[in-house]
Amino acid sequence: MKRLLITGAAGNLGKILREGLKGYADVLRLSDIADMDAAGPNEEVVKCDLSDRAAVHELVKDCDGIVHLGGISIEAAFDDLLQANFLGTYNIYEAARKHSVKRIMFASSNHAIGFHKRTEMLDEKSELRPDSLYGVAKCYGEALASYYYDKFDLETVSVRIGSCFPEPKDRRMLSTWMSPRDFISLIEAIFNAPMTGHTVMYGVSPNKAVWWSNDHAAYIGWEPKDSSEAFRADVEAKFPEENRRDPAVIYQGGAFAARGHFED
């Protein structure tokens, strides 16, 4: 790959990929609305507001693939999400179409299906049940990705990311955790695959108590290596046993599902 664009490069996931994908492409083009470290070897740093359509078209120009992490990554007011997540994602896809980009990794979220109970095992055909306005924005992004594949043959792997940190931060993350190493290998697998169509996957390591299945996406060739079991004893000692009647425990979305409407 000659040039890979990573939006949202100033965020936690963007920083993981900036370091982990060094050498994967001839050039990593790194973009965010926030400040970033200066460009290193084989890097380009471009500050860009994704709601600015003309700027996004310039950003996408000459790119072979896109890792779209950009946008607001937490629950927020609808008007803010409208600009960053709805309009911003549309601008990325339309620019990708105009500049003949072949494949996008869209960072969806477990919050697109957060109102499913933890007792359910989900796959790509499970009903969308967003737990927040943020989750609604991710459902929109998945639908947009599907449309651009069916209409324009622009491939996307929509990854419903769980929790990507060096180690799980609480008991819920024993199920949702994805290691940074597994995340990096997932991105490589997505862009190495001969074809993807529009595929929905779950961004989760092979944990023991997992709620999501990627069996349908075996053809992508991703082989995650890590498991949260290595951290279970420490996490369970640090955090008290969960109350099974708490909505944050009943539903997969955790605290997002338990909270009221953001704008109330």
Automatic annotation (TrEMBL):
Keyword NAD annotated: yes
Keywords for the protein's UniProt record, in alphabetical order: NAD, Oxidoreductase
Domain NAD-dependent epimerase/dehydratase intervals: 5-174
SUPFAM superfamilies in UniProt: NAD(P)-binding Rossmann-fold domains
Keyword flag Oxidoreductase: yes
GO molecular-function terms, A-Z: oxidoreductase activity
Family: Belongs to the NAD(P)-dependent epimerase/dehydratase family.
Protein name as catalogued: NAD-dependent dehydratase
Origin species: Thalassospira mesophila
Organism ancestry: Bacteria, Pseudomonadati, Pseudomonadota, Alphaproteobacteria, Rhodospirillales
